[in-house]
Structures are given as structure tokens and as C-alpha cells.
Amino acid sequence: MQIAGMICEYNPFHLGHLALVEETRRQGATHIAAVMSGNYVQRGEPALLEKRMRAKQALRCGVDLVVELPLPWAMSTAETFARGGVFLLDCLGADVISFGSECGNAALLIKAAKDLLSPEFPPLLREELQNGCTFARARERALARLSGPETAAVLQTPNNTLGVEYCKALLSQSSPMRVFTMQRVGASHDSFTSDAETASASYIRSLAAGGMDFAPYMPVPAAEILQAELDAGHAPASLERMERAILAKLRTMEPEAFVCLPDISEGLENRLYAAARKAASLEELYALVKTKRYPLARIRRLVLSAFLGVTNALTQSFPPYVRILGMNPRGAEILHVSKMTTKRPIIANSSDILSLDNIAQNVIELESQSTDVYSLFLPNPYPCGLEWTAGICKVWDNM
């Protein structure tokens, strides 16, 4: 048995994801486990469709086991996202981590990660930040001074950058996982255009939201699942449906509540508090807070974290459980092996939460409440309790 692990959002599952699954199999993986964001994603918005439907897409397209990256880690910085995902893959006993990158060069990404973790790096970063650079630009310039321009150049593109964070997490956690990365081809990350065969997840989401044809850019099973959810009014999730509710929540928050948000620093809480009392729309709120130093994705995450009740304290450690979203028979084999060595309890149904410690119960309660809220982003909301009534997605018929 060779277990390959992937950290993903599948928002939604598209042809690029399928290509990585197929190449990972060719590289020798007998089993594939995915750690997937739940109902909210890193860019600070609700996922296009509910997490179990996205897990079902993955299972229909070659993934064997899907576990959830809990909300505090899923809707966070790349570093925290990677830290949580790598930890859960280790809990599952993954032998190799597999991901796409612009460079397709695992050795280069590992070198960049080692240098970013070296004691020589922080003083260089501080110097560059003092020159008024954004954090991303300062980090790249500091790495160029330490390691040379070729290594630093990997930080210029999003999937390379995330790959470096995966490698940093592997090193920091002393993980034995090997690294495999496949070079991405076709449409770039978050591109709103497509080529003849591929499209980014952002472009596919825009097609689905606009009632246009997305099927050419997705595996057939994944497209069928998305279309069925659209027809039922269970997709697409839209931030705008809850805009007034989000603004209302932020307007009632006291200044000290903003201090407790994840990734808050440098007086950003004051800007957010002041903007929340002025803005009449989310776009206006983002515009009032955003600066060169505070990119839009960070602001969006902070706003949604405030609305959902995510605090900085939750993100300081590792996910406290392994939550199963879906599996096939090979996925069940992964679980059978991992139960003997896992560092965290495995949650498959509601009765499993009774044995959790207080921290884990707090996280899973946040997850449950956030799922109830997520439903209100949909055209046709589910009733409360979906977190436990939906059950695990089991796919036994496409092995």
C-alpha cells in the first residue's frame, strides 16, 4: 500500500484536479487521500457547493478518502492552511504529498522552504519590511538575498507559494512524507479565462453562477453532480445573499472582539472596526480596509471569520480530530491502517464526538454552526442540522 495525500478545496473538482489524481496513480500510489476544506474556502467566501457534494465529486473521479480540513485552518493564511493539512495527512499515514505547482520542481520548493525556515532569514525579512514593501514582496526580496533569484522566484506564483508552505510544514513537523509535484498546465490559478481544454476553478464558478456551460472543463461525474445541485437550488453559494447579515454582525462587535480574529495585527483591527461602522456593502467595507499592506484575500477572511466566530486561538495548534466526509473501499482500507497509528480521534458519526476533549468539541460545534449558516448562502437553504443528518458520502460502484 502506498498512500498519496492531497490538500485541496475542490471548489469545484475540475480537469486539472483529475490530471493530478491520474498522474499520482502513475507515480505508484495505490490509495489517494484528500484533506479538503469544508463549506468555506481560503479566499474568504462560501464554497460553490456543500462539502459532501464536493467530496462526492472527488470520490467519483478517483480519490479514495476525503477528510475535512476544519474551518479555522481552511479559511486562513497559506501557512496555517498547509500546517493543518499536512498534519492531517500525517494522521492518515500518507507516504507522499502530491500537489500541482507552476515549476513542477520538488527540489526547488524544498530548498526554498528550508531557507525560509533558516535562522538567517528573519533578519533579512525585517530589513525588507522596514523598506515599506508588502509582506509578499519583502519575503521574496529577502529570500533572493539569502538563496539567489532562482529560488526566490518560486514565491511569485500562487501554487508554487502554497507548495513551499507544504514543504515548510513537512519540515517543521518532521514528517516522513515524500514530495511529488506536477507542473500545472493550461489556465492559471484564479484566471477568468480558459484555453481549449482547461479552466481555473474561479472561471468554472463564474460559469456556474451565470447559468453558462461549465461541463467541458470538468470530469463528467463532477459536472453531473454540480448540475444536479444547481437544479435543486443547493448551489451556487453566494456571499451577497448574506451581505446585510454579515454587516449587521460586524456593526454590533466591540473593538476588543476584532483583536481576537485570526491573522489580525498592526492596527488592522482598528481599520476593520471603523470600516464596519461606515460601510453599506461588503465591497465598500473591503475598499475601506484594504491597503498595499493588507491584501483583499486577508480582509475577506477577517470579515467572514468575524461573522462566523472564528478566533485566533483556534488556529495556533493543529486540527484536533480527523473528520471523514467520504470514502470508497480503498478509503476504508486507509482508515483501517490509520486507526492504528493516528495522532487524533477519527470522527465518522455524531456519537464519536462524545469522547472528544473540550477543544475538539469547541471546533466541531463551530463547524456545525457554520454549516447551518452556510445553508443560508444557497438559493434553497437546507434546514439546520445538516452537519449530522447528511452522513458520510460512500461510493462503492466506480472502483
From TrEMBL:
Keywords: ATP-binding, Cytoplasm, Ligase, Nucleotide-binding, RNA-binding, tRNA processing, tRNA-binding. SUPFAM superfamilies: Nucleotidylyl transferase. Its EC number is 6.3.4.-. The keyword Protease does not apply. It comes from the Bacteria. It is an enzyme of class 6 (ligase). It is found in: Cytoplasm. Pfam families: HIGH_NTase1. It catalyses: cytidine(34) in elongator tRNA(Met) + acetate + ATP = N(4)-acetylcytidine(34) in elongator tRNA(Met) + AMP + diphosphate. ATP binds at residues 7-20, 100, 159, 184. Catalyzes the formation of N(4)-acetylcytidine (ac(4)C) at the wobble position of elongator tRNA(Met), using acetate and ATP as substrates. First activates an acetate ion to form acetyladenylate (Ac-AMP) and then transfers the acetyl group to tRNA to form ac(4)C34. HAMAP family: TmcAL (MF_01539). Belongs to the TmcAL family. This is tRNA(Met) cytidine acetate ligase. The lineage of its organism: Bacteria, Bacillati, Bacillota, Clostridia, Eubacteriales. The gene is tmcAL.
